[in-house]
Amino acid sequence: MTPSITDSAVKAAVAAIASESATTAEKIQMLIEMAQGFQKKPKTAQDLRNAVGLYYRAYEMSGEEYPLLKAKAQVGMAGTLQIIPHADTELLLQAKAGYEEALPILQELATPEEVAEAQMNFGLVLQSLAPYNLARISDSIQAYHEALRVFTWEDYPQDYAILYNNIAIAYLSMPMASEREYLRQGLAVQSFEVALKHINLIDHPREYAMLQNNLGNALQYLVSSHPVDNNLKAIAAYNEALKVRNSRDTPLEYANTISNKANALFNLPDYPEKPELGNSKNLLQARSYYQEAWSIFNEHQQLEQAELVVQALKDVEVEIRAIS
């Protein structure tokens, strides 16, 4: 394999840092900052691997003498491992171990924000490992709640919204006996609603749209004796998301929301108070949304999502033919 420009740039930079007349602590800090550059704007997966290598070098240099820098390097390494594309469980387990070792040191020596950010990312790693029975989803939720002590809606609205979104999704993935299914779904809906008390359309449009879209999904699939009411609420939530998401500025988010809205319309009578009159109008609207979503997903090479929409379009065509 021919070394990339970034590989040779890393080697040159590491050599330059080594020859600097800086103190060891300053050199460790330089390595961490260089790694952060690769981590924040990676052009290739190799950039992320370079970041891991730089963090590891900083970690090694820290030894026992610089515990805070060592913990920061460890958290940086863990954060990079978890965003490597198609990261396998081995990399995620390494990230988990890194957070577990670094967090007690951060809690003692770092700023509250640094601790909260590490807890937020630790929660994500646990959430990713839970489906493989390599972590507990309840521990993931606990890590998010720890981060919320610092990331309040007043001071950090963006992080606050993301944390509540993650908590809700964690609840939805929690395995429970079928008779308790409504409980975890209810907790997810409640989490979205708590966040939406503080995250509004004007000040935080992007986070607002994300929460409304995902609230719609949670409502739509809620186990309930009032499915029509839940679908109506879901459509109201999607409409709120569509106040922000549009085909011009946020095409993929827009396509996602209109296909979700189409799913809800598919199961909704045209006149909820007179379900016996059928849902021909809603089926036609659903078809139109699916066609638009398919076109956007296809154009942006989102082939998996496009394929799901094709399947939904087939189902809707069958229903339309059945009633015409």
Automatic annotation (TrEMBL):
InterPro entries: TPR-like_helical_dom_sf
Protein name per its UniProtKB record: TPR repeat-containing protein
